[in-house]
Specification:
- The chain is of the alpha+beta class.
- The chain has three domains: 224 residues, no CATH class; 41 residues, no CATH class; 59 residues, no CATH class.
- Helices cover 42% and strands 17% of the residues.
- It contains 14 helices and 13 strands.
- The strands form four sheets. Strands 4, 5, 6, 7, 8 and 9 form a six-stranded antiparallel β-sheet that branches.
- Strand 7 and strand 8 form a beta hairpin.
- Helix 4 packs across helix 6, helix 7 runs antiparallel to helix 9 and helix 13 packs across helix 14.
- The protein starts with 6 loop residues before the first helix and ends in a 17-residue tail after the last helix.
């Protein structure tokens, strides 16, 4: 098949993507608790004799907020219902054991990189040949078709790799892939992505077709604005890091005392220090104008209360901007379901906007699986999401009991606090009822109740 890309065009695409890639990698550094404070510090450029300590305290708020959101959304797997239990089982089998893991990766990538990407392909060597995996956001450059509908037209993907030779020397390589709805082109270059030049290695070029009929990549946006969560509170977090690092510096520098000495009567400073340590006194003289000498000390004053106040204010502002849970609130021990939901209101708002975007992506994944299974007749795709949140289990269980004969047993099971897989629970209930009926038959000898041994079949009164 004729190639769409040229080597010069590939190099230009990678070069022009530098700024976007670096922005994503920077957010990922914050997720790994490697904030800007680690690079910049807070010491002034000019030398200050009172400032020697250089603590660079990085706070992992962003990691906590990201993991909290991901756990809230995906601790319990998203359930899919296509209106047919047999089809549901087939889809569930193809999704496999890694679905929850990939959901977590997608949420973290979208939170950091504004959007996450899922790639699917066919691998005939696997038990289930339909395979899928999350691709790092910085590796993907999407190309969308023109029009009101957001439709993917092609994908540019590039990533770094390396090899180690027998002498332990590492050689870096860059792979580039171009995907559209019919084929894929793959190229290999010697050199790092951020290097000054890439050398094309034509012996590794590949060009192959696929039968998906669409670009086999699925977009999962973090929100409608495609904005990283960090953008909402990065400025506040940077100030928090600076204030806390400055406080640590002051505590370390305060241990140092600077002596201000005027008209010292000795020969050198060493003699002054020795006498000060030995006799606890220092001799000062008088200059030619009759001005007496003096000895004073200079220490750093720490505004402790002011620092404490600003840190408290910043922390509250960070939690508010992040729409996260206030972990210091301990007044929800025995609260009702309404009070607990109110406690989660900000996190629910943030998670709900992500869910709207992710539902579209999951629908595309399920349709791709159905196409792989050659299933064309199904009712619709219904998704059931379960939040990982503190709840009043007693209250929820009582609601479930009182809903008996009002709504279906399946709906009750879907909302019961102890049930993770409603379909599996329905099967267990069916088996449980069948076993109970079997035991009843064994006890009474028939299905209708117990038999009277004195009954001879006569109906005469």
């Amino acid at each position: 098949m004729e190639s769409v890309m040229t080597i010069n065009k590939i190099k230009k695409i990678i070069q022009n993507d530098y700024e976007r890639r670096q922005e994503i990698l920077k957010v990922k550094k914050y997720y790994n608790n490697d904030n800007d404070i680690k690079i910049k510090g807070i010491l002034p450029e000019n030398t200050d004799p009172l400032r020697n300590a250089d603590n660079r305290t990085s706070n992992n708020f962003h990691e906590d907020f990201t993991d909290e959101k991901s756990a809230y959304l995906f601790t319990y797997p998203v359930l899919f219902d296509l209106g047919d239990k047999k089809i549901n089982e087939q889809v569930k089998k193809v999704l496999g054991d890694d679905f929850e893991y990939e959901c977590n990766n997608l949420c973290i990538n979208a939170t950091n990189g504004r959007v996450a990407w899922l790639h699917y392909w066919i691998d005939e060597e696997e038990e289930t040949s339909f395979q899928y995996a999350t691709v790092e956001t910085e590796e993907i450059i999407p190309v969308f078709k023109k029009g009101l509908k957001r439709k993917l037209g092609a994908i540019h993907r590039y990533y770094e790799d390396y090899e180690e030779d027998n002498n332990g020397k590492i050689k870096y390589y860059t792979w580039y892939e171009y995907w559209d709805d019919k084929h894929c082109e793959r190229y290999k270059f010697r050199g790092k992505i951020d290097g000054t030049g890439l050398t094309h290695l034509p012996q590794f070029d590949e060009n192959f077709k696929h039968d998906f009929g669409v670009v086999p990549f699925i977009e999962f946006r973090n929100n409608k604005k495609q904005q990283s969560d960090l953008k909402k509170y990065k400025d506040l977090l940077d100030i928090y890091d600076k204030v806390l690092s400055g406080f640590a510096n002051d505590l370390e520098d305060i241990q140092q005392i600077i002596y201000i000495l005027e008209n010292y009567g000795g020969e050198n400073l060493k003699e002054f220090v020795d006498k000060l340590k030995r006799f606890k006194i220092a001799k000062v003289g008088t200059d030619e104008k009759g001005v007496k000498g003096d000895l004073r000390t200079l220490q750093i004053e720490i505004p402790v209360e002011a620092r404490k106040v600003i840190l408290d204010i910043l922390e509250k502002r960070i939690y508010k901007a992040a729409q996260s849970l206030d972990m210091d609130n301990s007044n929800f021990g025995n609260s009702s379901g309404v009070a607990l939901k109110f406690f989660y209101r900000k996190l629910e708002l943030k998670a709900g906007l992500t869910q709207i975007e992710f539902k579209r992506g999951f629908n595309q994944l399920i349709r791709a699986i159905l196409k792989y299974l050659r299933i064309t007749e199904y009712k619709s795709i219904t998704q059931t999401w379960t939040r990982n949140m503190i709840s009043n289990d007693l209250e929820n269980a009582q609601i479930a009991v009182e809903s008996k004969d009002i709504i279906s047993d399946e709906s009750i099971l879907k909302n019961h606090p102890w049930v993770e897989d409603p379909e599996d629970e329905m099967k267990k209930l069916k088996i449980q009822k069948e076993e109970a009926q079997k035991r009843q038959q064994e006890i009474f000898g028939n299905a209708g109740g117990f038999k009277d041994n004195n009954d001879d079949g006569n109906t005469n009164e």
